[in-house]
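Support request, please re-run this one:
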Amino acid sequence: MAKRSSLSFAEAAISDLEEVLAWFTEQGIPEAGRKLVEQVIEQTERLTLYPDSGRVVPEYAMADLREIIYPPFRIVYRREKRRILIVRIWRSERLLKLP
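Re-run finished. Output below.
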C-alpha cells in the first residue's frame, strides 16, 4: 500500500476559502458556501494518496507546483516529499500569482 502524505493548508488558501464563505453569506445562501468549501476540501484529500494526480501549473512549469481543476476553482498545491501544501484556491479564470 502506498504511503500517505500529510495535507496542510497555507494561510493564503485558508483565506481563499474564507472569502468564498463570506461571498455566499453576503448573497444570503451561507449553506451553499459551506457545501462548496466541503467539496473543495474533499478534492484535496485524494492528494494524500495520489500527490501527482494534479497537473503542473502551466504558468510556472515547476514539477512540484501542481493543481487540481474543480470548476470553478483551481486548487494549487506544492508537492513535497511527504507533505502536500495547498497554496491557493482561486477561481479558474484567474492567472496564478504566487506571493
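The beta strands are 6-9, 55-56, 65-70, 73-79, 83-91. The chain has two helices and five strands.
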